[in-house]
What we know:
With 196 residues, the chain is α+β, with helices and mostly antiparallel strands.
Amino acid sequence: MKLTILTLLSALAQAQTITLTGPPSVRIGETVTVDVSSSTPGVAAYQWALSLPVNWTVVSKAGAVSTKQLYCNPAGLLCLLVGAAPPNLDIIPAGKLASITLRVPAGTALGAAAIGLTGTFAASPNATNIPVTGVGMTVTVLNPKYDISGDGVVTSADVSTIAQMVADGGSCSFDGPSVPCKLVDVIYAAMAALGL
C-alpha cells in the first residue's frame, strides 16, 4: 500500500503535460484537426485555452472521453472537460481528451504557425489541483492547393493554367509529379477562386 501511494505521489510530482498534436502542414483555406492529449494520472477534470494565429477560427470540437463532457466558450478557445452530471469522479484515462478542427483563412502567412495551449489546469476527484503544463505545436502553412502561381490565392489565372494542363494531358504539380490533371481539378480550382 505504501509503495502504491509513493508511486502515485512520485508520478504527480513529475512534470505533467497536456499536449497538442496534429499534422505537420495545412494549406491556406483548409482545415486542420488537432488532438488534445494527456498522460497525467489521477485526473477527473481538465481546463485549457487555445492560442491561435491571427484570424484562425475553431470550426468544431469534440470530447474523446465517454464519461466526461467537453464545454467550450462560443469561440471554442477556452474548454473544460468535466463530469456531465455531478458527482462524476471518474478518472480520465491517459490518451486523447478532445479533437479540435481549425480553419486556416486566406491571407495567412506562409511558413511556421504556432498553436499554443495555455491556461492549463487539472483536478483530482477531490478537487485537488494537479499542476499541468500546456505543450503547443507548430504547423507549416502552405499555399492553397490550386495556387499554381504561388501568390497565396487561387485566381482565374490559376484556373486557366490548370485547364491548359488538362487539355495538354500534363501532370498537376499540386498532386505530385506523375499525377495527371483531371477536369475535376479545373472545377475545384474554379470553386476555390470563387471562394466556395
